[in-house]
Amino acid sequence: MYRKIGLVESEEDIIKKSVYRSFEIGKSKDLQAIQSLHYNDKRFSKFGETPPYKRMDFSEMCMYEELYFASVSDYDFKIEDLKVDFFDDIAIATFIVEHTGMLVDDYSFSGRTMSLRSRGTNVFMKKDSRWLIVHEHFSKIPTEVKE
């Protein structure tokens, strides 16, 4: 899946792994990894396909992603059409992601199935030799749209 040049991973592979890692958190429940993948700075921003539908800063994004991943059981995801473009120390990853799982309400001991298909864009910036996400944007693909 990931290509290596000699023993060193390519920059593209590092970005792709980071995209996958950001969703693998839903399976591993390693919620601390959310912060390590993102650029902790006032300029960070995210627009999501789930509430709240406003621009979030780093703190809000961490809180909402932790709540989301903590409340989904049997989480799984599939990423399609992952493309990475580089502009010096900026990289843009675009992809389609499908999330599935069971949203669990711990208060009522109930749950509902979830299936969400979205377009995603992650903007990375190279900071101290690490690629970190500085902006995320997701938009739900309506179920009636076929690609």
Please give the structural blueprint.
Layout: E1 4-5, E2 8-9, H1 11-28, H2 33-37, E3 45-47, H3 58-70, E4 72-87, E5 90-105, E6 110-127, E7 130-140
Parallel strand pairs: 3-7
Antiparallel strand pairs: 1-2, 4-5, 5-6, 6-7
Can you offer a commentary on this structure?
The chain has 147 residues and is α+β, with helices and mostly antiparallel strands. It has one domain: Nuclear Transport Factor 2, Chain: A (Roll), CATH 3.10.450. The chain is 24% helix and 46% strand. The strands form two sheets. It has a five-stranded mixed β-sheet. Strand 4 and strand 5 form a beta hairpin. The longest helix has 18 residues, at 11-28. The protein is globular.
Task: Supply the key terms.
globular; 147 residues; five-stranded mixed beta sheet; two-stranded antiparallel sheet
